[in-house]
């Protein structure tokens, strides 16, 4: 809650390995309604720290896809708009269960 009593809902940035079906990185960031610059920052930081760039970035949110499509060109990474993300959904369900059970 902030000083005015409104709930604060951070954006959860997940970097996943589709092939290995595992979570590689998680970071909570302040939501930004205008763009996804912070999501891009998290991605670039991850690439710099690990020295590994993804071969493909998948996004199902239209605004995120648009932002990452432009960034992907700069990074030389393909960006795909998809409807379903079963690995992400499984990991998110596990996180929700973990946070809600406390």
3D structure, described in words:
- The structure is a single chain.
- The protein has 102 residues and is α+β, with helices and mostly antiparallel strands.
- The chain has three helices and four strands, in the order ββαβαβα.
- The strands form two sheets. It has a two-stranded antiparallel ribbon. It has a two-stranded parallel ribbon with strand order 3-4.
- A hairpin with a 4-residue loop joins β1 (11-17) and β2 (22-29).
- The radius of gyration is 15 Å and the shape is globular.
- The two termini are 18 Å apart.
- The model has no long low-confidence stretch (mean pLDDT 83).
Strand order of the largest sheet: 1-2
**What percent of residues are in strands?**
15-25%
Q: Which structural class matches the secondary elements?
A: alpha+beta
How confident is the prediction overall: mean pLDDT? Answer: 83
H/E topology pattern: EEHEHEH
Estimate the global geometry from the Cα principal axes.
Answer: globular
Helix content: 40-55%
Low-pLDDT runs: none
How many DSSP H or I helices?
A: 3
What is the alpha-carbon Rg in Å?
Answer: 15 Å
Major sheet details: 2 strands, antiparallel
Structure summary, number of beta strands: 4
The end-to-end distance, rounded to whole angstroms, is 18 Å
């Amino acid at each position: 809650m902030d000083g005015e009593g409104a709930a604060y809902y951070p954006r959860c940035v997940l970097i996943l390995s589709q092939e290995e079906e595992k979570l590689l990185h998680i970071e909570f960031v302040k939501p930004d309604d205008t763009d996804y610059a912070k999501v891009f920052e998290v991605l670039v930081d991850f690439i710099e720290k690990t020295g590994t760039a993804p071969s493909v970035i998948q996004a199902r949110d239209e605004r995120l896809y648009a932002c990452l499509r432009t960034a992907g060109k700069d990074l030389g990474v393909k960006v795909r708009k998809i409807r379903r993300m079963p690995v992400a959904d499984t990991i998110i369900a596990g996180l929700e269960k973990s946070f809600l059970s406390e």
